[in-house]
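Progress against Task 2.4 (sequence-to-structure conversion) is shown through the following example record, which the project officer requested during the mid-term review.
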Amino acid sequence: MSRNLTPAEARRMQLIQQPKRSKLCGHAVIAMVAGVNLAAAISAIGHRKGTKAPELRTALARYGVTVGETKLTAHEEIPLRAIARVTRPRRRNWHWVLVWDGDVLDPSPTPINGGIITSFMEVQCPAS
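Structure tokens generated for the chain above:
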């Protein structure tokens, strides 16, 4: 049985970039999924520092969007809509990107070279 898509599900995703040299990639992903501007996403997170999965989950819940549990890509296939964590070999940091209808939307203003998606959380838009 099919259902009507909600506006969040039906809209084409708009790329929102993080400012250069910032740690706002998670904030930008929240803004894209929730359909809000970067300032609103920063407010929902509550700080301008790097983010972790629980913070993204909590911020999206404020907009009525839930995400699934964190899954490792070694064990699961990445769904069509997910928040994905990219890690770079020999680096101690990670970067958030959005997978939306199979496209990868990277909020970084400069390409992240050599990164691999190591985990993800499936985006579950609210039912209509």
